[in-house]
Amino acid sequence: MAAADAPQTPEARLVVVDDEPTIRELLTTSLRFAGFEVYAAADGASALQLVRDTDPDLVVLDVMLPDMDGFTVTRRMRERDQHVPVVFLTARDDTTDKVQGLTVGGDDYVTKPFSLEEVVARIRAVLRRTRAAGQALEADLLRYADLELDEDSHEVRRGGRVVELSPTEFALLRYLMLNPGRVLSKTQILDHVWQYDWGGDGSIVESYISYLRRKVDRRPDGTPEDVPLIHTKRGIGYVLRKPSGV
């Protein structure tokens, strides 16, 4: 076989889960054409089996499935210590669905009807940031106040307690810790954490900041930490800093 005819290595291995045959086939065909290796499932049980069998780099997961919803599928993957990134497909622009998806460990969402270009862009953005989060970078350990972020072990601690974060939450906190005291706009956060080159939805930043604040600035029992670190500068953005006088 000539070198020009040699098969190309897939960009990543994906599992696509949607119970609508037309959408499932469209996504599968289009993503394969874009350079991905793709496996498809029509329900939650099949999706869980496929994830176990194929060890994908990312799952594109419809929220509404016939046997269990996409949130349940994600929770079961996390319970099995399968931390593969998840991009949810939601049938309506419902903030509740989006927030719940982020809460159970999802990394992004796409609202139906969607453009194939948007789906591909979001998949690649999630893959870039999750792969980057898994690599050892120059600063192995970031510290601010009693907050520590260890890039080698991919662990976060607040006052010595471990704080469990998804890959995207980890990337967001890392960006804040690399810029302590600096107010970061939603656009800056989207560019550096989500790496959207087509323009992103700023509301996802609000959701992630909210849930990151609940994990970092609150104890496991729900009581607030003595010193909150993540702050909102209304109308401007977000900043990691200690309150004045602390």
Describe the structure.
The structure is a single chain. This protein is of the alpha/beta class. The protein folds into two domains: 9-133, Response regulator (Rossmann fold, 3-Layer(aba) Sandwich), CATH 3.40.50.2300; 141-240, Orthogonal Bundle (Arc Repressor Mutant, subunit A). Helix content is 39%, strand content 19%. It is built from eight helices and eleven strands. It has helices spanning 21-33, 44-54, 70-79, 95-103, 116-133, 167-178, 186-194, 203-216; strands spanning 13-17, 37-41, 58-62, 86-90, 108-111, 141-144, 147-150, 155-158, 161-163, 230-233, 237-240. The strands form three sheets. The chain has a five-stranded parallel β-sheet with strand order 2-1-3-4-5, sandwiched between helices. It has a four-stranded antiparallel β-sheet with strand order 6-7-8-9, with helices on one face. Residues 1-6 have low confidence and may be disordered.
Descriptive keywords:
246 residues, alpha/beta, five-stranded parallel sheet, disordered N terminus, single chain, Arc Repressor Mutant, subunit A, 8 helices, Rossmann fold, four-stranded antiparallel sheet, 11 strands
